[in-house]
Every structure is written in C-alpha cells, then in structure tokens.
Design goal:
Bound molecules: zinc ion
Order of helices and strands: EEEHHEEEHEEHHEEEHEEEEHEH
Structural class: alpha+beta
Strand content: 25-35%
Number of strands: 16
Strand order of the largest sheet: 4-5-6-8-7-12-13-11-10-9
Oligomer: single chain
Helix content: 25-40%
Distance between the termini: 26 Å
Radius of gyration: 21 Å
Number of helices: 8
C-alpha cells in the first residue's frame, strides 16, 4: 500500500514584508486505492466562528414539512407493494418517500420531532434510531426482492453548509442498483486489488494505519476510525470501517451503536473548532462482495465566507473533484484523538 505525496513549493514576493521572497509549501496526495488526488494547502488554523443559532433557526419551523404537526399530512406515502402502511414510523421518527427523487427507491427519514438539534445535542440514541429505521426500510425492499435492492445508501446533510435546505435533521435513504461515482470507483479498484493481492483493501488499510498510528483514531467494537490520507473535505475526512461487513445489511445492532458513538465523538471534536455542518455517507458493497467492506465517511463542512454564504466547494472541487484540505490529516488526527 503506497501513500504517495508530491511536495510543492510556491515562491512569492510578499507584500506584507517589503516584497521579500516567501516560500509557501503545499502537497498533492494520492488516495492509495483510487489514485484520486487531493491538495493539502491554504494552511490556516482550523477555527471558525459559529453563528447566532436562534437567529439562524428563527422562522424556519413554520414552513418545515418534517415537524410533527405537518409530517403526517404533507409528506408522500409509498405504494402498497413497497410499504403497505405508507410511511414507516419508529417512536417520533418518520420515513417516507423523497418528494424530489434522484432514483426509483428514495426516502427521507427524520431524526425526531425536534425541529433543531444542535450538533452537540445529537446523541448516539438519535443516530441509532434513525439508522435503524433506514435499515428496516432496506430490509423491506430486500425482502420483496426489489431490483434496486443492491446498494443500500444513507446520506446525511446536516445544516445549510452541507447542502441541506432544511434545519430539521433528516437522512437521505436510498437503495439503488447504480452505485454513485466515487463508490463505484472505489468498488472497482478494491475488486482489482482483491484479485491482485488476494486480500481485502480495507482490511489492509486498517492494519497499515493502525501500525503507522498517525491517522489512526481508535476502535469501537469492530469499527476502526481513521483520518483519511487524501481527503475531499477542507477540514479533513474521517472514515469508519466495519470488520467483516461487506454491505449495509451485514451491520449488526452493535455495529450501528458503535458507529453512532463514534460519530458523536467527531461532532464533539469538530464543534470545538467551530464547525457545525457536515456530510456523512455510507459506502457499502453489494451483498457477497468480498472485495468490499462497509465504511462510512464523515466530512465536516463550512463556509469560506459566512456573511456572503460562500461555500467551501469551488470550481476545483466541483468540476475537477480535486480535494482541498487546509491542514495535514495527521494534525487533524491529533485534534480528534482526545475524544477516542
Ligand atoms: Zn421541523
């Protein structure tokens, strides 16, 4: 396994220091599996200002379709052959079809009846229940042998900088025979790796990172937590890999609890840096994919300019899919490690 980094140096004449020569380092890193590159650059302290949440949230409850007074009236229902009762309910959580679908089997699932849950108030219990409800939905589509029941995916956009148009915490839940781009690329490269090396890439990654130590965060149950070598996120990405699980339906109740616990640790650590938005995606294989390992990726999101609403994804990332990270993942690891 090769962790390749190409060092770069930019020389400028510095206007803040009488136009003296100044050298600015940066690094191009290659993902050891796919070869996809990321830039480690724009070094700055990982510290952001949080907004006034009362002001941010004020007025958004009135039109929120996920609040308890509206969710059972304004959200759609599944046809009888998929979910006979229309919507799936677990305590105060509700799962219903996504009204703006991007595939044939898409759902949204709310976290609770609470309109705004600050990031540090999200408990492992909230996450366990929301994941459980989503997994129950996946099991339903698996039981009816739906043709889209191949990749069981959860995406989480939390708060506006993540791409969420609603404050009310919810998950995007979908099953598809078509893995999205990066998942497809990973699976294809992991299959080649498996054929060539005779071992599972993710198992080897965990072994290598655990021995190296600088990006390893810890173990919770049979989940391993690492900072990603070549991240997409500006404040790094964190990956959690579940031993022996190939697909989402391989997750046990304990795995879901362990993943939930790890995610709240990350939220607590990033909150201290002023981060209050994130993305989280599942990256599973299909059932029986021995070259795959279930993993999820947590990626903190922020604004480059809060007042202007400037997102942290610009042309380089959006159109070239080139990651930009503003600190070394090994340094980000040191900030997160006390939580593990
Ligand atoms: Zn709401």
């Amino acid at each position: 396994m090769k962790f390749e980094a190409i060092g770069r140096e930019t020389v400028i004449l510095d206007p803040t220091n009488n136009m003296e020569r100044k050298s600015i380092p940066s690094e191009i890193r290659k993902d050891p599996l796919t070869g996809r590159t990321s830039r480690i650059c724009h070094f700055m302290p990982l510290k952001w200002e949080k907004p006034d949440f009362d002001q941010l949230v004020a007025g958004t409850q009135e039109y929120c379709p996920f609040c308890p007074d509206k969710v059972m009236k304004v959200t759609p229902c599944f046809p009888e052959d998929i979910v006979p009762e229309g919507r799936m309910v677990l305590d105060d959580k509700v799962l219903f079809p996504n009204i703006a679908p991007y595939d044939s089997l898409g759902a949204c699932a709310t976290f609770s009846g609470q309109h705004f849950i600050p990031m540090t108030d999200i408990t492992p219990g909230h996450i366990v229940d929301a994941f459980r409800l989503a997994i129950q939905f996946f099991q339903r589509v698996e039981d009816i042998q739906h043709p889209e029941s191949v990749y069981h995916l959860i995406n989480w956009n939390y708060m506006p900088a993540s791409g969420s148009s609603l404050i009310h915490p919810h998950l995007q839940v979908f099953a598809s025979a078509y893995a999205p781009n990066l998942l497809q690329e990973e699976l294809s490269c992991a299959k080649t790796y498996y054929q060539q090396q005779g071992t599972n890439y993710w198992d080897d990654l965990v072994k290598t990172e655990k021995a190296g130590g600088r990006r390893f965060l810890g173990r919770i149950g049979r989940t391993s937590w690492l900072t990603v070598y070549a991240p997409l996120g500006v404040a790094g990405d964190i990956i959690a890999i579940v031993d022996s699980a190939n697909c989402t339906l391989d997750l046990t109740a304990e795995d879901v609890e362990d993943l939930a616990q790890g995610l709240t640790k990350l939220m607590s650590a990033y909150d201290k840096m002023g981060v209050y938005n994130f993305n989280m995606n599942f990256f599973p294989g299909a059932s029986g994919d021995d070259h795959a390992r279930f993993h999820l990726v947590f990626s903190p999101r922020t604004f480059f300019n809060q007042a202007l609403g400037t997102p942290d994804v610009g042309a380089l990332r959006n159109l070239y899919n080139e990651g930009i990270c503003m600190a070394f993942p090994e340094e980000i690891n040191e900030k997160l490690k006390p939580e593990f």
